[in-house]
Design brief:
Elements: H1 29-51, E1 56-57, E2 62-63, H2 99-108, H3 111-120, H4 151-171, E3 182-183, H5 184-201, H6 204-211, H7 221-234, H8 237-260, E4 267-269
Antiparallel strand pairs: 1-2, 3-4
Helix pairs in contact: 1-3, 2-4, 4-5, 5-8, 6-7
Length: 270
C-alpha cells in the first residue's frame, strides 16, 4: 500500500514506494556492461602510459595514440615527431602526459560519457524508474564535478590532438627504406583516425562551434552547411564514443605487440 497524501495547494506528491524499484526486467545489465567497458579502458590506458615501452615501431613509423605527441628526451629514436622541447622527464611522469589528460578530460566531460558514467559508475540513477543511492545532489557546482563545464575547452585541445594523430597516420605510410609503404598496422591506425574524427566532429561542442549563436543561418551559408553536417553526425555521437574507445585500445595493443616482437606486421607494400 502506498501513501499519496495531498500537499498544500492541492498538488499530489510522488507515491511513497517502499521497494527500490518496481521494474521486473534486468535493468542492471546495460549499466553493468558500460561500467565494465569504462573501467577496462581506464585500467588498460593507465597501465600503458606508465609502461614507457613498446609504443613505437621504428621500421614502419607506427606510434600509438596513447603516447602521441612524444616530445621528451626519453622518447625512443624516431617517435618524437615534433622534437623534444620538454627535455627530460622525471621517472614518475609518463611520456603521454601531454595528450592523455586532454583526451581523458574530453571524454569524461562529454555529454555521452557523463550519462554513461553517472548511470554506470556513480549510480545516479542506474536506470530509469530506479532509485539512486545518494541522499543529496549538488549538481555540477562543486569539485570535481564543476570540471564538467570545461567540456568546450577540452574539445578545442582534443581537436589539436586529433590533428597530431592524423599527422602520425600520414607518417605510417612510410616503409623501412623511407619510401611509400603500408601494412596492416597502417590500416588499423586509419580506422582509429576515422573513429576519433567521428567522435570529435559529432561532439555537441563542435556543433555549437559550427552554428551556435547564429541568429540568421541565411547570412552564414557555409557555417549552416557545416552545422547541418555535424548535426547529422551528432545523432551517432554515442556510437562514435564507444567505437573509438575500442579502436584506441586495439591500435595501441597492435603497435605494442609489433614493437615487442610478439608478431610481425603484415605488409602489403614495402
Amino acid at each position: 500500500m502506498t501513501s499519496t497524501a495531498t500537499k498544500p495547494g492541492g498538488a499530489r506528491p510522488r507515491a511513497a514506494i517502499a521497494a527500490r524499484t518496481l521494474r521486473t526486467d534486468r535493468w542492471w545489465v546495460q549499466p553493468l556492461i558500460i561500467a565494465a567497458i569504462l573501467l577496462f579502458f581506464i585500467v588498460y590506458s593507465t597501465i600503458r602510459i606508465f609502461m614507457a615501452k613498446w609504443y613505437y615501431v621504428e621500421d614502419y613509423h607506427y606510434l600509438t595514440p596513447l603516447y602521441s605527441p612524444c616530445i621528451s628526451n626519453e622518447c625512443v629514436p624516431g617517435s618524437a615527431h615534433f622534437g623534444t622541447p620538454l627535455g627530460d622527464f622525471p621517472f614518475f611522469v609518463p611520456l603521454g602526459i601531454i595528450a592523455f589528460p586532454i583526451v581523458a578530460g574530453f571524454r569524461v566531460t562529454c555529454y555521452y560519457y557523463r550519462k554513461a558514467g553517472y548511470r554506470s559508475l556513480w549510480a545516479s540513477p542506474p536506470a530509469c524508474a530506479v532509485n539512486e543511492p545518494h541522499k543529496s545532489y549538488s549538481g555540477e557546482t562543486r569539485f570535481p564535478l564543476f570540471v564538467m563545464n570545461w567540456h568546450r575547452y577540452f574539445f578545442y585541445l582534443a581537436a589539436l590532438i586529433l590533428l597530431v594523430n592524423i599527422y602520425d597516420a600520414v607518417l605510417a605510410f612510410r616503409g623501412p627504406d623511407g619510401g611509400f609503404g603500408f601494412g596492416l598496422g597502417t590500416l588499423i591506425i586509419l580506422v582509429n583516425i576515422v573513429a576519433l574524427a567521428g567522435y570529435t566532429a559529432s561532439c555537441h561542442a563542435c556543433r555549437h562551434v559550427m552554428g551556435g549563436r547564429l541568429k540568421h543561418f541565411s547570412k552564414n551559408p557555409l557555417r549552416y552547411r557545416l552545422w547541418t553536417f555535424v548535426s547529422k553526425l551528432n545523432v551517432r555521437h554515442g556510437t562514435f564514443a564507444m567505437t573509438s574507445l575500442f579502436t584506441v585500445i586495439f591500435t595501441d595493443f597492435y603497435i605494442m605487440a609489433v614493437s615487442a616482437g610478439w608478431f610481425s606486421d603484415l605488409r602489403f607494400i614495402n
